[in-house]
Amino acid sequence: MVIQRAKGTQDILPGNIEKWQYFEEMIRSVCREYGYEEIRTPIFEVTELFQRGVGDTTDVVNKEMYTFLDKGERSLTLRPEGTASVCRAYVEDKLYAGALPLKLYYLGPMFRYERPQSGRFRQFHQFGVEVLGANKPIVDAEVISLVWDLYQRLGLNGLKVHINSVGCPNCRIRHSQVLKEFLLQCRDNLCRDCRERFERNPIRVLDCKNPYCWELTDGAPTTLEMLCSECSNHFNELQDLLKAAGVNYKVNSRLVRGLDYYRKTAFEVIVEEIGAQSAICGGGRYDGLVQEIGGPPTPGIGFAMGMERVLAALESQKKLPVSGGSRFALLIALGEEAQGEGFALISKLRQAKIPVGIDLLGRSLKAQLKAADRLGVNYALILGEEELRKQTLIIRDLKLGEQYEISLAQAYVSLSRKFREGVRR
Q: Is the separation of the CB atoms in 391 and 408 below 8 Å?
């Protein structure tokens, strides 16, 4: 029986991986320009980190984590998100002792036990950004602007940033009281999850995706109605800054996000045309999280995007580069002596960062030319006994169907010049 990959996982194969690399290179470029540094945290952490950091009332902790005991009977969990791990590193590695604010980003796999569907996997990949040590609205605006800028560079259309303020703990207490009073009228008719949320964290009822619950809670008091003056001023200033940056945003008073650690700003980026999973980025402020896991009081804000969802949106809008051959040329060496002479040439070209391949199977000229065409190679470099005798090399342009002969001594200079001139069609 053929062993297959686990449900909810995927193989990212050649021909597709180039799209991921393009996306990742764009991410790194934007982060570099905005002054963010990369951080890499372990794929598994002690379970308590997510119970305390993400919140034990969330679906992520209650239903979706991959948790196991190691051989020392310690409870470990494959990371379901990146923020808690970054904050743990911030505390454990005493990053707060350096210059603040600390601006970090990460790329990597996350794990959640969910029902696999389009754009959603059990092992998925996230790009995230975290800023620790600054609490001004301009920090929130920069984080949202970074997302917006990235999507503009990628060429995505039809985007809107949804923003809300979920307030501070004082605002949340007042909101929880009036929200519970409202929900008492319809509690028995809510879905099972929302009935549980009513007792443990009623604000999460507003986040329910069940259309019936959405209808029952229409007109429920929102966090925006309960903001203290500080939170209200913070939210108003954020909006002014987003307008100044040209970010297309909308205030969505029902947006509360699914994790317990959010304070003040919460946001999502929405693109409607990719189906049910229309949010391609989400984040917010989490000023109490570092303290919750044992660190000093530290304001923080960040976001994460599921890379599979963003790639699906780019694919849908035909914004991804067409995958093609990555080689500039392929050496076709006929015979052992030609292989040795040709290998010396391509080694020199490779050292100059020019992508050149060589046949490794000892195939015929016809078979190698077919392989070169299949790979999307621009030039076939043909070296046989006759060429060796004359110390020449045949360069065949596979796009134009033309060829010419040059001396082996001139081949390196000629091919280097062609590559620099961008003759990679």
A: yes
Helix (H) or strand (E) holding 63, with range, is: none
Regarding beta strands 356-358 and 392-397, do their DSSP bridges make them parallel or antiparallel, or are they unpaired? unpaired
Written as one string, the DSSP assignment of 225-238 is: GG--HHHHHHHHHH
Euclidean distance between CA atoms 382 and 331, whole angstroms: 6
Summarize pLDDT for 173-191 with one digit per residue, the tens.
888 888 888 888 888 888 8
Q: How confident is the model at residue 420 (pLDDT cuts 50, 70, 90)?
A: confident
C-alpha 303/C-alpha 141 separation (Å) is: 12
- All structural domains of the chain, each given as residue ranges with its CATH number in brackets, are 17-168+228-316 (3.30.930.10), 329-416 (3.40.50.800)
Structure tokens at 211: 């259309």
Output the pLDDT for position 136. Answer: 96
pLDDT at 176: 82
Of 69 and 171, the structure prediction assigns the larger pLDDT to 69
Rounded to an integer, the average pLDDT of 385-411 is 92
Share of the chain above pLDDT 90, in %: 68
Q: How far apart are CA 197 and CA 179, in angstroms?
A: 12
Q: What is the pLDDT of residues 65-78, one digit of tens each?
A: 999 999 999 999 99
Cβ(316)–Cβ(159) below 8 Å = no
CB contact set of 221 (below 8 Å; sequence gap of 6+)? 175, 178, 179, 182
pLDDT, mean over the chain: 90
Nearest to 142 by CA among 254, 283, 291: 283
Cβ neighbours of residue 264 closer than 8 Å, sequence gap 6 or more: 140, 165, 166, 167, 168, 231, 234, 235, 284, 285, 287
Distant-in-sequence, close-in-space partners of 400: CB < 8 Å, separation ≥ 6: none
Q: What's the predicted TM-score (pTM) here? A: 0.87
Distance CA 266, CA 255 (A): 7
Q: Residue 225 and residue 167: Cα distance in Å, rounded? A: 10
**C-alpha distances in Å from residue 233, one per residue of 10, 245, 372:** 45, 19, 63
- HSE on the CB side for 134, CA within 13 Å? 17
pLDDT at res. 143? 98
**What would the two tokens of residue 108 be?**
């990597």
